[in-house]
TrEMBL record:
Domain of life: Bacteria
Organism: Anoxybacillus flavithermus
Protein's name according to its UniProt entry: Uncharacterized protein
């Protein structure tokens, strides 16, 4: 279960990085950042749903 906890933490950190925009962000960089934001959120949502279905989230304390 430690692998899952670490994986979730790493993905959450990457997601959080996409929430803040650099001051000199170009339009292309912004599009990439927002796309990454959506992708990380989607992965976290998928992981959460699978953990819930398999009742693993209660073991991980999520």
């Amino acid at each position: 279960m430690i692998f899952l906890e670490d994986l979730i933490t790493l993905i959450q950190e990457k997601y959080n990085e996409t929430l803040t925009a650099p001051t000199d962000e170009s339009a292309e960089d912004k599009s990439f950042r927002l796309g990454s934001n959506f992708a990380y959120f989607d992965v976290l949502d998928l992981i959460e749903s699978q953990l819930t279905i398999h009742e693993i989230n209660s073991i991980l304390g999520l």
